[in-house]
Write the structure tokens for this entry.
Amino acid sequence: MPYTAPLNDLRFLLDHVVGFDAVQATDRFAETTPDVTEAILTEAAKLCEGELAPLQRAGDLHPARLENGVVRTSPGFAEGYRAIAAGGWVGMSADPAYGGMGLPMALATCMNEMMSSACLSLQIAPMMTQGQIEALEAHASDALKALYLPRLTSGDWVGTMNLTEPQAGSDVGALTTKAVPKGDGTYAITGQKIYISWGDNDFTGNVCHLVLARLPDGAPGTKGISLFLVPRHLPDATGNPGVANALKVVSLEHKLGLHGSPTAVMQYEGATGWLVGPEHGGMRAMFTMMNNARLGVGVQGIGVAEAAYQHALAHARDRKQGQTPVADADSILAHADVRRMVMTMRAEVFAARAIALSTAVATDMHHATGAESWAARAALLTPICKAYGTDTGIRVADLGLQVHGGMGVIEETGAAQYLRDVRVTAIYEGTNGIQAMDLVGRKLADGGEAMSRLLDEIEALAESARGSLPDVAEPVWQACETLRETTEALVAETRLNARFGGAQPYLMAAARVLGGHAHLAAAIAEGGRGPRSALARFFVGRLLPEHGALAAQALAGDKDLYALDPEDLVA
Ligand SMILES: Cc1cc2nc3c(=O)[nH]c(=O)nc-3n(C[C@H](O)[C@H](O)[C@H](O)COP(=O)(O)OP(=O)(O)OC[C@H]3O[C@@H](n4cnc5c(N)ncnc54)[C@H](O)[C@@H]3O)c2cc1C
């Protein structure tokens, strides 16, 4: 489907809102000059607009399928993937020592968003591989790194992540896949994994599965889990794919959307695997990949939202219905309610994109400086980025469908595909409910210090603009104070389940405040006049006020949630 990469918005956010200049000023990323950044964005846009966007419908109409145990991918996907790999995009932020470009995560995030807009179901393959590369860089032995990283970085091989089992979804600790030492430094992996994205394909030389499994002496729960690299084909002495490993794709799921992405049930039957990280230290190692993927999945939501927005806007500018209140304007875009939808879409995408890029910048700053405060910032923002980014994808795709009227539910228009494709992003990579619990649990376990530091920065910006932009700055400052009080009350709540009862609204309240901050920064950069300032006023006037109701819900505890017995719910 037609797609135009939002380069102006991406450039503006990098230059004026998320502090990318600090990343460029570090020694580690000194080569990412403004010229290099521009060249990367332009080339990425060209690939996504020209080669990937045309694949979007093909993936939907011709899903990946399993033929005699072999996965056949959607028409054009092999060529699309090869174009991604040939451009070096899989290894954009990977270590140059293994062939990567060593670019900041902030730029990889821009590219991942554009690929998600263009063709979400294909984008998952390079995104998973990027996460696997990061996990291997951080935790694998030198021998594994030397063998696998160059091939993954080049995109010749792809990576998957294997956590989920029928009885172990959100509760990863319930997994039963076994790993038995074979005495030669390798392990025999046996068990079933379900819902494995891109579990196999017909266009890469190998598929490398990162599999969570339990050793015979592994304790129950997450503490006893180890991580293994299990390739589809065992590398021979020269490092090329050799004999087939003892694993297979049992079936592919028939899904609501994302038809082009093969979602596999995988069976491991004593497959040979190599330990990544220490024995029983699998969750820590896998978290490297999961944190990368949580940012990546949030960005998937934003990418789909951007594409759905463009699509809906084009329809709204073209479709004529009734008399409009605006002179010389006869399309539905002139109707107030359609404007409300379109403005909401644009304002939400801007806010979610700013949060995602801020998360990436914090990750880059941590990598470049080693400062723990940046690690804490990235950790704090990651669940917000994942949940709000994907909720934005769903909300905006839904509004996009509504803008289309009846045409929205007619598949040929493509509006429905965005909604079907993006829906699962709120579920996989840790459901959005689990993200919210992570935010009020683990991420406030520092007594709210990381959140407090972030709120200090937001208030300082709002203070500085109180004189010049009072209509935007004042509400942002007020909302920030409300969030600070809410955070303090949650931190003081000693019953974790009471915090969990308010976790989702707390996360959304935080996203509203962060969104207000990003829009305020944009308005300041524009001098308070122009389209970005108008959008900021829209966000502050219509969407930011939601934070108050959300904060009230965040403090509602859990008692009312259990007020009805299960029998009462049935009755
Ligand atoms: C298309 C697709 C692709 C996927 N790709 C992969 C992949 O590549 N690799 C992989 O390993 N997995 C993958 N998954 C699995 C995905 O990560 C899980 O579906 C997800 O983690 C949720 O697990 P579940 O489906 O078992 O739901 P459940 O865990 O059964 O959750 C059901 C509901 O209960 C809630 N819930 C569960 N536990 C709690 C709790 N403790 N507190 C509060 N609420 C709770 C959840 O939020 C959810 O709303 C994929 C799934 C899909 C659908």
Q: What stands out?
A: The pocket of flavin-adenine dinucleotide is lined by residues 160-164, 169-170, 195-197, 255, 258, 263, 424, 427-431, 433-434 (CB under 6 Å). Residues 306 and 349 are 7 Å apart (CA to CA).
